Task: structure prediction
Amino acid sequence: MLQQVPAVKDLIRKCVRCGQCRSVCPLFKEIKNEGAAPRSHVFLTQLLRDGELEPDSALARRASRCLLCKSCSKECPSGIPVDQLVVAMRNHLKDHSKDNVKRLLLSKLFKDQKSLKTAHFLLKTSQVTGIKSLADKTGLLGLISSDLEKANKLTAPVSGKMASKNIAEVTPAKGKRKVRVGYFLGCATNLFYPARAHATIEVLTVNGCEVITPKGLQCCGMPHIANGDVVSAKTMTENNFKLFYDFDVDVIISDCASCSSMLQGDYYDQLFAEGLPAAVTHFKGKIYDLNKFLVDEIDLNANLEKLPKTTVTYHDPCHLVKSQGIKEEPRKILKLIPGVELIEMDGADQCCGGAGTFGISHYDLSRKILDSKIVSIMDTSADCVTTSCPACSMQLGHGLVEHDLKLEVKHPVEFLAEAYRKVK
Amino acid sequence: MQSEQLVRELKKILSPDKVLYEKLDLLSYSYDSSFKARNNRYIPDAVVLPTSTQEVSEVMKFAYKHEIPVTPRGAGSGETCGALAVKGGIVMDLAAWDTIEEVDTENMQVQLRPGVVHAKLNEHLAQYGLFFPPDPGSSKMCTVGGMVANNSSGLRAVKYGTTEQYVLGLEVVLPDGKVITTGGVKSRAIKNVSGMNLTKLFIGSEGTLGVVTKIRLRLWPKPKARGILMAVYDDLENAPKTVLDVYKSGILPSGIEILDSSAIKAVNEYKPEINLPDAEAILLFELDGNPASVEWEGNEVARIAKNRAIKVEWSTDPKRMAELWQGRSVTATAAARVRPDGSRVFAGEDISVPLNKVTESLRRIKEIGKKYGIGVVNYGHIGDGNVHTAPVINPEDSAEVELANKLVDEIHRTAIELGGSTTGEHGIGAVRSQYAREEHGEALDVMYIIKKALDPKGIMNPGKLLPEREEQ
Ligand SMILES: Cc1cc2nc3c(=O)[nH]c(=O)nc-3n(C[C@H](O)[C@H](O)[C@H](O)COP(=O)(O)OP(=O)(O)OC[C@H]3O[C@@H](n4cnc5c(N)ncnc54)[C@H](O)[C@@H]3O)c2cc1C
Ligand code: SF4
Ligand code: SF4
Result:
């Protein structure tokens, strides 16, 4: 129930409607009217809570117009977690939302590794023959909006095999084992960036980590939560933590900013009302973003070989910089690698507009935000873009293609892996 | 006129995407940051988003003809319901019209459209070594149009004064749609006493006389150096005394701010890294100018402050200065942090008292708070006697709301009694006009005459600034 969500119950009243959140919201910057201001979300949630508004599709549409980028929540002097209110709204309004198709696809395809295989196949087909023809074949045509047509371009090209195909459940540490790491291999890394997943494992093992990648892992639940499906998210969360618990891992890491912030419980307190099993609480404080883990938690092996001269720029994923306060760590990694030069872009911590599945339902809006990001990237003249989130990577990759730029998008760990490889 | 018809007509005047009428949009225009707007729903019939003088003028002509109220709006950061359609009709949102048209560096002025956000303007001007000195706590969101309409000021008013000191001329669309330029149609002069001062008439008129569509501001060279001195007190009453000591020594700081014990607590809760000392009160002096004078004045103020303060900290380190100054500028909203289940409310938040009555006003506000059992956080621009009071209540509890209203009334009356004003910078809007007769006497009648002359049909932001009962 909306009324029971702690932030809805206790924090809305602290919003003084000062409007400071207007100054940072990427969507407000584009839409430019009060209906798109974060404080409007707060106000409308209040009206819905108090019965001044009834749940309906108009409200669901409003709630869908948010990137969950947390810029506002971080800026707000009254401590209002606006994004959490939005998520609570989406959950409450799911029966009125047009995103049912999205939710259906998510619950069917982005669930576990078996369903991901189907997704992998479908994506491959659609990327070869176009989404229309795929939809024709599967009878989904009536459900496909024109936005979805545009959005098909958003997904990164899938080629070859999914990462999980070539990753054993247990990868031993190189040399003496120092720590047993649970690797949360997220759906997007698995599907679209298998090389990144392999780099993660390589770097971890070189640094004395035994890496556990359970076969039964399911999605982290962030896309489901973001689309109002709390029930699925909770089931998947429980499943994932139980797997890691049974493997008795010391810590859990992820190379996906959204996965790690979701696993850290970003939305649990607000939405998982009935509490969580012990396996989840057991890992409190033991879940890390990969960059953070490498820089702060272990003695990073600095025996690196020089790479060919490359300039890179770094984009801060919202779910790292705003959710987890991680800004310096990925940069430290990049600066550590001989041959790699980091050039900062303007507004590196500005949202790229991707926000998981937001770009699918609000392509044009998302595109505007993306375009200014691409301009900042172009201004650096860097050879390569780095970031720490596969969803951002896809969005940036899409923007680069649309602007006819032939830059690759990588995770800092991919450079690190390369530099280790050269040592041999 | 029926709402649907109104929207249809407006869409003929403006392109359809500049007219909002969906229920959820209209609801989003029913609030600003005032306490009153929390407890009432002022829902407009339509919202327009013009981005040219022509568009504003066309809307005004239409509204004038059909006698439809029009309420200009900037960012809606006002604290008085100023930008709300308390009588229904059209809200004219000018925030999206945010072009800086010309920076005339040789004449040290800028021309801009009303929606430019204050902080953005100064960010832009920095490259020319210039700045627009008034510095409201709402800098990140408020528009310059809103600042003109409210004659806003802020943390640096002590030395730099208020918005009116910087406005050289305005383009205004009058209620009947006519467009005028004040301060000289072609003038770029800085000094100008030709004609009646219409510019000043519109400044602070809270959108009740016309819509400001263009602003010509005088700029100042950005000072080369800056320093912040923090003085810590174990006795609240000693703080205002230090302020007078500093003035007597012949030093004019650019800002002097006070935070009482609860304000300190609120800031520390919000930004622990600022780490203000636990005390009864803190004064923050900002000094600016050339490096040598700033250093000298900083040491001098430190010497004077030590006579009454238990600790002083002088800093010219940019990081620390930013922290301290930000500590003060966020107090307005962060105040709520002192009570886990409460919120600050913007009411009775802006009294202004003579300098020699600051101590008394702070003491009396505390007493009034006690009387009603309401926690109050005090902070403000003590250098010019502008005391900001933040009652922290549970705004969802109607009994507390009622008590807060009584508290606020008493604070306002105290200000008048002490020879001050009910508002130093936030304005009257729909929340303080009941004190107008007491504050202005017969001058109020002249205000009615001016209003009637410029807005005979009473369509321009009705229900604001002037007491309603007497308006007809
Ligand atoms: C946290 C916080 C801190 C604040 N600190 C300060 C401070 O230090 N000093 C200070 O002075 N104020 C302060 N304020 C009050 C407020 O921010 C200012 O009054 C500000 O100038 C209002 O600007 P706005 O764009 O939000 O205007 P709005 O709130 O939208 O409108 C304010 C009034 O101006 C009128 N108006 C707006 N634009 C126009 C236009 N183009 N033409 C004609 N009329 C117009 C409206 O009708 C309304 O009456 C603070 C507010 C908050 C929430
Ligand atoms: S959410 Fe926070 S920043 Fe936004 S209006 Fe409310 S209090 Fe202000
Ligand atoms: S989370 Fe991001 S997109 Fe959503 S309201 Fe806040 S700032 Fe805007």
